[in-house]
Amino acid sequence: MRPPFFLLPAALLALARPALAQTAPAASARPNRHQLGLTISPEFDNLFTANQVLPLGLLYKQQHRPGRAWRLRLTAHYSRHDTASAGGAFYIQEKGPTARVWEVNAFAGYEWQHQLGRRWQWYYGAEAGLGYRSEHRDYTNYYHNPTGFNGGGPYTNTDVGFRDLSRWQVQGRGFVGLSYALTSRVRLFAETAVGVRYRHQKSWGSYTTTVDNPNYGVSPGGTFRDLVKKTFRVHYQPVQIIGISACF
Predict the structure, then answer these.
(1) H or E segment and range at residue 130
(2) Burial code of 92-128, b = ≥16 C-beta within 10 A, e = fewer?
(3) What is the pLDDT of residue 99?
(4) CA-CA distance, 217 to 77, in Å (whole number)?
(5) Three state DSSP letters for 23-63
(6) Strand partners, 51
(7) Mean pLDDT confidence for 90-96
(8) Which stretch of 1-5, 27-31, 54-58, 61-65 has the lowest confidence by average pLDDT?
(9) Which of 15-24, 68-77, 168-177 is predicted least confidently?
């Protein structure tokens, strides 16, 4: 299940606490060559709906020369909940027992950094990566006809089945970030990004059908096989990630 949202600030504070007593780095201090950060990736399209998404991630930076760094980033998301209900005049999709979704993305990139005083820093760069997503959704559909056909009387048609989806993607992003040094060892940061993404998606599933009125024939059900969708998109993320990092 998704971790409760309030656990994230607690985790960030636990990461930062060992270094909070330190002061901001002096100009002559030996620079830290590594950063390891914990991130969240808000997706505002879903933030206030039933399908909330808040991927957690890790960000590692290796400062190979002043003002320049290599970076690796990993994000992941998992959720399990009841299938959302939907319906119309005669059609009702009931809540299914299971809807499972998980996704993982990995990026590698490079950034250029510029100081804005003693504590502030802004940076920009690019990254590219691969991702994979898997979904499984069980469902039960009811279709009720109160009059029926040809004098056969009312009936309810029940479909019980599942739909699965797999998707992989290739993406590249250009980003701009801003960070603030809480201490010589702890930094807060946020990034915005413009990305290019190609997705290859396939879905499939099956269902069985029953009818509660013997005056009508019974359908054995059916299958959904290899429904493929390919998309290419340029998109803007106002907030790509927010995070806190430890420097060492």
Answers:
(1) strand 120-145
(2) ebeebeebebebbbbbebebebeeeeeeebebebebe
(3) 80
(4) 44
(5) CCCCCCCCCCCEEEEEEECCCCCCCCCCCCCCCEEEEEEEE
(6) none
(7) 52
(8) 1-5
(9) 15-24
Give the pairing type, strands 86-87 and 68-81: unpaired
Query: Residue type for 217, please?
Result: G
Is residue 172 within 8 Å of 126, Cβ to Cβ? yes
Task: Check: CB of residue 1 under 8 Å from CB of residue 80.
Answer: yes
Residue with tokens 């702890």: 186
Taking only the tens place, the pLDDT of each residue in 142-195 is 888 888 888 889 998 888 888 899 999 999 999 999 999 999 999 999 999 999
Tally of CB atoms within 10 A around 220? 7
E strands in 48-119? 56-65, 68-81, 86-87, 91-94, 99-116
